[in-house]
Amino acid sequence: MSRSSKRSIYRHWRRKEASEQGGDEAIKDFVLKYLDLSGQDVRSEDGCILVGSRSDPEHAHAIMFSGEVANRGQCELVAVGSPYLSRILEDTRRRGVAAAQLPTANPEVALGRISPNTSFTILGSVEEMPRRALKLYYLLTYTSNKRSQRIVEVALDASGQEIQWLYSTRSYLNDEKPEKFRADKLELVLDGSAFILEKRMEQELRGLKEESARLLSDAIDRIQGYYAQLRDETRNEAEFNRSHSEGSSEGRRGAISAGMSFDEAKRLIADYDRLEDLEIERERARYRVRAEATIVGILLLSYKVLRCRVELKDERASREIELNILPNGEAESLACEACGKPIGEIHMCSNGHIVGSECIVSDAAGDKRCVICETKK
Length: 377
Known about the structure:
6-stranded mixed sheet; alpha+beta; 4-stranded mixed sheet; 8 helices
């Protein structure tokens, strides 16, 4: 990439950041995690983030992810195309995979999933289930009549399936002894991440292609209009010379015959046709949309899912359920016994059926009925 292209991208990102408070979360998460894992001291001061070596914290470099804040606090903006981010991207490529842990959730959050109308909820045994996931950071480059770049993260489990809840998770702990990730497993994850990334890029590429097609159509119309006018002028000039030559005296004919002949006009029009084709082909190449994705960082995450057994009781029924609590405090989907859809708030009816709010028919005290109860009447 040329220096002028980098400066152009950098200026574009600064303008974009000035209108978006808080900056790009994917870039911020990527950079801050890199600084932490590489052993650098990070602290906030006067609206900027100060970065320094832990052995020499007095000598710090001020950075920020928001253009407006960076300008106000005289910090260096970290954005796609900026020198600071470019150095980090180069270093992450050299280092390879980094590792970290996710904090384990409090098992008591499982009780928050239960409807408050349930008389008693008792948290029973809690089992920790170790799991692993990856965050892959891609640098996307779109090229057409203009060039743009941004960082996109893809979060997957060890089987290559996307993990939606992991995108909003920003709290990590250093993992000093990460487990090895087998090459065949990593290949599976890379294939899965490429598929997810391709799906995400479809809509953006469709928009870019539609815009480029419109601009190309306008450019072709201008080119065709220009050369059509040149051809018409050439034909008119040749026709003018012929008509005046035929109606003039012999001496006059000799003077006018120096003008353009039909054979000359024909050759010139053929040249115009070739030039028109060349210019149209050049415009087609200019507006052709190209996309490139480069992995700039891989973060291997280890975490624990809590398998919580919860007992639900009321005056007429009792049930024990299992809830798997993720590190972000959310529960893995529990299916409604009535409709099969994922449950948000968990309800137990008076006959012991576990359902969601939408499948509760009557919520009267001592007589809570669900859809299943109604169908069995």
